[in-house]
């Protein structure tokens, strides 16, 4: 099953920058980590279709969101995964009720430079360690196959799996590459669905 993504949630009109301002100390620590603690990552990012500036902005956005989740709710911090690509935030995972799902979206929208929030969080009142393990194996297999595919730049994609549904966010160089990435994920054993938030790279004039 491959379904197209729903429209993203409209951005609220409240003072969105409050959360961001309270996280200024984290921004400096995150920036230092990007530049020093993960030097190998910085070296490889030049091969992405994101610029260095976009990569750092995305890393800071993710850091602020996760730190705010940690401050406000252990459930959100441990159960919600965050991926960011060019200011587009993808939220996946499972929470116990709709209030937590809405809160996760509200916090993400409160971070400066966020352009879109895609909420794919599922509501479940039970955690199954076996489901988590299956999802981890699926994500690992999809990522591994993307690395081995010569016509796909695996660095452009982030993969998350929840209850055997694979979520992909990233940048493709063409429609054909987008289809190839979806097909690769769909062919992995155990996958029950693929939902993609892949944008097509705009050619430079």
Task: Walk me through the structure.
The structure is a single chain. The protein has 205 residues and is of the alpha/beta class. The chain is built from 8 helices and 7 strands; from the N terminus they run αααααββαββαββαβ. α2 crosses α4. The chain is globular, with a radius of gyration of 17 Å. About 17% of the residues have low confidence.
The geometry reads as globular
Number of helices: 8
Strand content: 15-25%
Instruction: Work out the number of β strands.
Output: 7
Mean pLDDT metric: 80
Report the sheet with the most strands, covering strand number, pairing sense and barrel closure: 4 strands, mixed
Which oligomerization state do the chains in this entry correspond to?
Answer: single chain
Helical residues, percent: 40-55%
Ranges with pLDDT <50 over ≥5 residues?
12-46
Structure classification: alpha/beta
Rg over alpha carbons: 17 Å
Task: Encode the helix/strand succession as letters.
Answer: HHHHHEEHEEHEEHE
Cα-to-Cα separation, first versus last residue: 36 Å
Write a short abstract of this structure.
This protein has 205 residues and is an alpha/beta fold. It contains 8 helices and 7 strands; from the N terminus they run αααααββαββαββαβ. The protein has helices spanning 17-22, 24-37, 39-45, 52-72, 74-79, 98-109, 129-148, 175-186; strands at residues 80-85, 88-95, 116-119, 122-123, 157-162, 165-172, 193-200.
